[in-house]
Amino acid sequence: MINVAEIKEHMVVVGSDGKHVGKVDHVLGTDIELAKFDMGAGLQHHLIPVSWVDHVEND
Questions:
Q1: Which of 9, 21, 25, 40 is the most buried (most CB within 10 A)?
Q2: Model confidence over 2-56: pLDDT tens digits?
């Protein structure tokens, strides 16, 4: 399980399928807002629950 307190801005978000989802812009409670200027996020802000994330890693 991911410790939300350890998630930092610009970390890479990897989904349960092992694929790049996007980069962290902000953490809002138990949700992650993905950075708008990341191709994995489709150049839009997306808010996803931490429960959808397999892991995060430094860029």
A1: 21
A2: 889 999 999 999 988 898 888 999 999 999 999 888 766 667 778 999 998 999 9
Domains along the chain?
4-57 (2.30.30)
CA-to-CA dists, residue 35 to 1, 3, 29, 31, angstroms: 22, 20, 16, 13
Secondary element (H or E) of residue 48: strand 46-49
Q: How many CB atoms lie within 10 A of CB 6?
A: 9
Q: Which two tokens stand for residue 53?
A: 């994330």
